[in-house]
Write a structure and sequence with these properties.
The protein has about 375 residues and is α/β, with parallel strands linked by helices. The chain has one domain: Metal-dependent hydrolases (TIM Barrel). The protein has a 7-stranded mixed sheet, with no helix packed on it. It has a 6-stranded parallel sheet with strand order 5-8-9-10-11-12, with helices on both faces. It has a 3-stranded antiparallel sheet with strand order 15-16-17, with no helix packed on it. A hairpin with a 2-residue loop joins strand 6 and strand 7. Helix 2 packs parallel to helix 3, helix 5 crosses helix 6 and helix 8 runs antiparallel to helix 9. It is an enzyme of class 3 (hydrolase). Its cofactor is a divalent metal cation. GO terms for molecular function: metal ion binding; N-acetylglucosamine-6-phosphate deacetylase activity. Belongs to the metallo-dependent hydrolases superfamily. NagA family.
C-alpha cells in the first residue's frame, strides 16, 4: 500500500493507516515533515455541523431528500454532519424531525453519517431572521421536549435576549444539548449572560447577530472576548478574511461550517431553502432582495480557503474535523488514531480530494 503524510493528534506520520471493522487499528510509520516529500495528505474526514441541503435537495423536504444530501456532501470530504432545519411552523418541524430521527439510525452505503440535528430556529429574534422564514417564536419547554423525543437534537440556535430563553439555555445545556447564540439582536451583556447560563457556541459568527462596536460590543464582542467555540462560514463571502483572522486569534476552538443549501454541488439556478426560493449565482446563494441565504460551500473548498488566508494544513484540518468533534464530545471522530472511526480524506499536493472513506467504507464519489 502506498504511503501518505498522515495527520494524527500527535503530528504528521509518513506511513499508512490500518483499519478494521470501521475503526482505525493502527497508524504505521515514522514522524515526518510533509514539506520534505511529495506524498499525498491523509486527514481526518470533515465534520460539518451546519448543513441545510445539497445536490438540489433541502433538509426540510424530508426523508426523500436526506440520502441525496449525504451522498452529495461525502463527495467533498464530509464524512459526518448535522442535518440543519429551518424556521418553520411547528407541524412542519415535527414532521421533518420524525423522519430525521429514523434516518440517523442508519447510514446508507456511499453516504456521510448524520450525527443528529442542528435546530436553527424557530427560537430566534424575528428582527434578525437573515434568510430564515418568518416563523420565529419564543421557546416553550414542552415543545422542545417533543422535538427531543423525535430526533437526536445536538445543537439548538437561540436568541438569548428573548424573555425566558435564559432559563431554557440553562435547562437544556444541563441535558447535554449544545445551545448556540445566533440570529440575535442581543447586547454584549446578554451574550455574556447566556454563556454563563450554559450556551457554548455562536451560530455563523458575525452573520445575523449584533455587530462589534467599541462602545457597544454586541454579540460579536461577547464571542470574541469570551467564547471557546464558535462556528464560522469560510466561503470568503460571508466573512472578510481580516475578520476571519480576528476570530481565529480570539476563539481557541473556532470551527468551520458550510451552512450549505440545496445549491451546493449544483449549477447556477433556483433552489429551495425551507419555504424560500433562493438563487445560486457567482458562487453565492441569495434571496430575491440580495440577502445571503446560506452558501454553496463544500468542506474541501473550506480547507483550501483556510490555507489560502494563511493557516497551515494541520490547523485548517483541526478546524474542520477535530474541533467540531470535540464540541459535540465525540472522542472517536475528527482524528486519526487507534480506536477512532476510519473516517478520512486523501488530498493531492494541491489540496484536491482523491479519496474519501467513511467508517471504513471507501466511497466511490468519482462515479457518483
Amino acid at each position: 500500500m502506498s504511503e501518505d503524510n498522515i495527520l494524527t493528534p500527535h503530528g504528521w506520520i509518513r506511513g499508512r493507516l490500518v483499519h478494521h471493522e470501521g475503526k482505525v487499528s493502527a497508524v504505521e510509520g515514522v514522524p515526518c515533515d510533509p514539506a520534505d516529500n511529495d506524498l499525498p495528505y491523509l486527514l481526518p474526514g470533515f465534520i460539518d455541523l451546519h448543513v441545510h441541503g445539497g445536490g438540489g435537495k433541502d433538509i426540510m423536504e424530508g426523508r426523500s431528500a436526506f440520502e441525496t444530501i449525504t451522498r452529495t456532501h461525502v463527495r467533498f470530504g464530509t464524512t459526518s454532519l448535522l442535518a440543519t432545519t429551518m424556521t418553520a411552523p411547528v407541524e412542519e418541524i415535527s414532521r421533518v424531525l420524525g423522519e430525521l430521527g429514523q434516518f440517523c439510525e442508519q447510514r446508507p452505503a456511499g453516504s456521510a453519517r448524520v450525527l443528529g440535528v442542528h435546530l436553527e430556529g424557530p427560537y430566534i429574534n424575528p428582527g434578525k431572521l437573515g434568510a430564515q422564514p418568518n416563523f420565529a417564536h419564543t421557546a416553550l419547554m414542552a415543545e422542545v421536549e417533543e422535538y427531543l423525543r423525535l430526533a437526536p437534537i445536538r445543537v439548538i440556535t437561540i436568541a438569548p435576549e428573548i424573555a425566558g430563553h435564559d432559563d431554557l439555555i440553562r435547562a437544556l445545556s444541563q441535558r447535554g444539548v449544545r445551545m448556540q447564540i445566533g440570529h440575535t439582536l442581543g447586547s454584549y451583556e446578554e451574550g455574556v449572560a447566556a454563556l454563563a447560563a450554559g450556551a457554548t457556541s455562536f451560530t455563523h459568527l458575525y452573520n445575523a447577530m449584533s455587530p462589534l462596536h467599541h462602545r457597544e460590543p454586541g454579540i460579536v464582542g461577547a464571542a470574541l472576548a469570551h467564547a471557546k467555540y464558535a462556528e464560522l462560514i469560510p466561503d470568503l463571502l460571508h466573512v472578510h478574511p481580516g475578520a476571519m483572522r480576528v476570530a481565529l486569534r480570539s476563539i481557541p476552538c473556532l470551527y468551520c461550517v458550510t451552512d450549505s443549501t440545496a445549491a451546493a454541488g449544483m449549477p447556477d439556478g433556483k433552489y429551495k431553502l425551507g419555504s424560500h426560493t433562493v438563487t445560486k449565482c457567482l458562487g453565492g446563494v441569495r434571496l430575491a432582495d440580495g440577502t445571503l441565504a446560506g452558501s454553496t460551500l463544500t468542506m474541501d473548498q473550506a480547507l483550501r480557503n483556510l490555507v489560502k488566508i494563511g493557516l497551515p494544513i494541520n490547523e485548517a484540518s483541526q478546524r474542520l474535523s477535530q474541533f467540531p468533534a470535540d464540541y459535540l464530545g465525540l472522542e472517536q471522530r475528527g482524528r486519526l488514531q487507534p480506536g477512532s472511526f476510519a473516517d478520512c480524506v486523501r488530498l493531492d499536493r494541491s489540496l484536491h480530494l482523491t479519496d474519501v472513506m467513511v467508517e471504513g467504507e471507501t466511497i466511490d464519489f468519482k462515479n457518483a
